[in-house]
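can u do me a favor
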């Protein structure tokens, strides 16, 4: 009997929300699950959920994190960061929706880290009047200063993508086996 795939994936949704909540646990700067979570959401959540769940996760956790740090929840860079994570969702939808290949997941996680680095630091440079010169040398200085943060972002995106895609694969295989055994008995 053919079963129509449900637009709701409780396993993918649970993993996505869990990754968002991991953001609240103390971690090194830029070693957060959000980039990997956005890739995973794009690949495994259906339709509008793929975009809305990561944005909601950010909207809910940003004020909590800012309260814990005693800093403002949002800055002029916040929209750029959110757009960058939406690009991660798009990368997940385009390149990871039908794969469990670890090399492909790692390659797209690398691409996601690079786009985050390029996009956010370009806007840091634009908004850093007086800190970086408004020319190519200033832009390169901005990117150079951000390289240590890129390393942690890359490691986090690779790590959390691996954890999320791996956990999803394990859980769904286990659930499929349970369903097959139940169907065989019934």
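np, heres the sequence
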């Amino acid at each position: 009997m053919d079963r129509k795939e449900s637009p709701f994936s409780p396993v993918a949704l649970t993993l996505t929300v869990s990754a968002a909540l991991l953001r609240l646990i103390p971690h090194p700067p830029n070693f957060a699950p959000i980039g990997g979570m956005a890739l995973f959401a794009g690949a495994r959540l259906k339709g509008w959920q793929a975009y809305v769940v990561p944005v909601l996760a950010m909207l809910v956790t940003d004020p909590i994190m800012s309260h814990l740090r005693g800093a403002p929840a949002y800055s002029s860079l916040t929209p750029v960061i959110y757009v960058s994570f939406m690009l991660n969702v798009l990368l997940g939808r385009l390149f990871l929706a039908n794969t469990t290949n670890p090399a492909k997941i790692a390659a797209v996680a690398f691409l996601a880290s690079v786009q985050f680095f390029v996009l956010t630091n370009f806007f840091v440079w634009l908004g850093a009047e007086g800190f970086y010169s408004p020319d190519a040398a200033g832009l390169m200085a901005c990117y150079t200063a951000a390289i240590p943060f890129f390393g942690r972002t890359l490691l986090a995106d690779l790590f959390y993508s691996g954890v999320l895609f791996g956990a999803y694969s394990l859980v769904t295989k286990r659930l499929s086996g349970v369903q097959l055994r139940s169907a065989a008995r019934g």
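Residues 10-185 form a domain with the Arp2/3 complex 21 kDa subunit ARPC3 fold (CATH 1.10.1760). hope that helps!!
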